[in-house]
Automatic annotation (TrEMBL):
Family to which this protein belongs: Belongs to the AHA1 family.
Activator of Hsp90 ATPase homologue 1/2-like C-terminal domain segment(s): 25-138
Stored SUPFAM superfamilies: Bet v1-like (SSF55961)
Protein name, as recorded: Uncharacterized protein YndB with AHSA1/START domain
Length: 166
């Protein structure tokens, strides 16, 4: 399958924002449930455990990664049904992510923003987020699950070039 990357890069005063979006023909509350309820996140990313509230740390299992590792994620902001901001720290660095939802005429746009401290790994990170957002789409419309091999390494050059555009 030949997928087309959608990510865009915006420079900010604090670094760069990698922005990807998807549109759903659904009310914002339903899309919000897909990104915040553990049984629904399990269908496209992984389940989570803990107290899901701002300032709290939850445990998330990445079931679509090798060995399905658990990791901790801090909830920075939770403003139903419009904004979820989370952060995590792992061996690759800090991950600061926001999911922003907006509904118009029965259609909800999800804007996914990864706040990058630097762009060193954008060639690997970008295809990964494209994959996970398409997993969300597949989970919502019961379409076949995408294959990560359709995203990486074929999308690597696109995202690396975003970084070089300056």
């Amino acid at each position: 399958m030949n997928r087309i990357p959608t990510g865009r890069l915006f420079r900010t005063s604090e670094g760069s924002d990698l922005v990807l979006s998807r549109t759903f023909r659904a009310p914002v509350e339903d899309v919000w449930a897909s990104i915040t309820e553990s049984d629904r996140t399990a269908r496209w990313f992984g389940p989570w455990e803990g107290h899901g509230a701002p300032g709290q740390t939850i445990k998330v299992r990445m079931v679509y990664e090798e060995q399905a590792p658990w990791f901790e994620m801090r909830i920075e902001a939770c403003e139903p049904p419009k904004r979820l901001a989370v952060s995590a720290l792992d061996e690759f660095g800090a991950w600061r992510v926001e999911l922003l939802l907006e509904e118009r005429d029965g259609t909800t746009e999800l804007r996914f923003v990864h706040h990058l401290d630097n762009e060193d790994a954008i060639g690997e990170v970008g295809p990964g987020w494209e994959y996970y957002l398409d997993m969300l789409v597949a989970a919502r419309d019961d379409s076949p699950t995408p294959d990560f091999d359709d995203y990486y390494p074929s999308m690597r050059a696109y995202f690396a070039e975003l970084s070089q555009r300056g």
